């Protein structure tokens, strides 16, 4: 097999193996308990307050994590996290590596998991 064809074959196999992997720069909260959840009346900001150490980037580490209810899955986040709060379920929050742009003293929720 010619070197170029062999290289392309190995490159294709390598690309297929790693195509499903993505690099995520955010931070996991680890398993936590929710002690408050809500949304602001005057805008689309929602929040969840969790027990334990602050999470998020150094510029906005906090135990309160924010997101926009009007963004993709924002309403679902509010519904799921409220249900977890009511059921006293543990959650794992994945927060962005950037601060919440509308209130930059808080980290931004990227995704969540209910335990």
UniProtKB/TrEMBL annotation:
Signal peptide positions on this chain: 1-25
UniProt entry keywords in alphabetical sequence: Signal
Protein's recorded name: Secreted protein
Entry superkingdom: Bacteria
């Amino acid at each position: 097999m010619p070197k170029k064809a062999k290289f392309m074959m190995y490159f294709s196999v390598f690309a297929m193996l790693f195509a499903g992997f993505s690099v995520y720069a955010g931070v996991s909260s680890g398993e936590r308990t929710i002690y408050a959840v809500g949304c602001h009346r005057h805008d689309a900001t929602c929040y969840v307050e969790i027990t334990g150490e602050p999470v998020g980037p150094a510029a906005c580490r906090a135990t309160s994590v924010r997101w926009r209810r009007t963004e993709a899955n924002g309403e679902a986040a509010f519904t799921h996290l409220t249900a977890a709060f009511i059921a006293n379920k543990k959650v794992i929050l994945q927060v962005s590596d950037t601060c919440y742009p509308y209130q930059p003293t808080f980290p931004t929720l990227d995704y969540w998991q209910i335990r």
